[in-house]
Fold this protein.
Amino acid sequence: MKNLTFSSHYARAMLHGPEAKGMDIAALLADCDIDSKVIAQPKARIRKGQFIRLFRAIWRELDDEFMGRTSQPCKVGHFHLMGSLVVHSSNLQEVIEQSIRCYSLFSEDIEISLNLDGDEAELSLTHQHPELDPDNFLVEWLLMVWHRLIGWLIGRKIVLSHASFTHPLPLHFDEYRFIYPCKCLFEQPRTSIFFSKNYLSMPVTRTSKELDEFIICSPRDLLIWTDEDDSLSTRVRGMLETFDEGGLPNLDWVSEQLHTTSYTLSRKLKAEGTSYQAIKDNLRRDQAIMMLTRQNLSIGDISSQLGFAEPGAFSRAFKHWTGVSPLAYRKQEA
């Protein structure tokens, strides 16, 4: 976590609201020890400390938790007020429902909804004036905040089965594996995250004092997850990331390492809203993106290293994961 960096895309996006409000951007960046020439470069990275200072400076100067991206500001303190209410909820479903009621009072621009009609819980976020959020930064940021806050309140990292977005595949898709560590679908009807309904009955484990400390540290604990993740899916992915015998092991091998049966492992992963196949697919997707954007490898080489029988199978899988072919993704990045 000491060397964590963020894409310059997000720093540029954060400046949209301040620029529209006529703020002195050069002075703002200087106060945060950020070189304006650096963040102008598409693939530049911003250090963790710089990024957090920029967030706080924009909140402070605009007095707006929505960073100038709604028709009316959401004054700093609304998030804390909402948290102070929902921390007393009995379970996660009550947390979400109470939060939705709060935000409907805070802003008419941002609409949040919880849909339980399907097999999974779907938490959706809609901006009623998308022209104020042209790069979808606010929508993506708020959805991530909700995902991490509600998980923090129940003391669990909520495993997402997938996420959907109304906008097309963005140029900074490589960053999504950190923000939304799941399958991401684009040009969909709604911007949503999906997770197991089993989480909804889990009790709130945090206290009001812990919430106050959490808010004081914001946005650090919203941007940066701690390493205290006891989810089984994270443990399984960690095992696969360190597997160096070529390809990826099967479910039986992983079950044996965890001293359990394949049936039990599959059942527990399903309770977290995922599966062994989904974890493998997400890992191979992330590895493929890194190889396509960071290494000078042919599609055939990448296909072989990821364990696909032939390049065509890899190309089909990659298009399924991202909505575009490997060549189109590489060209877009270039």
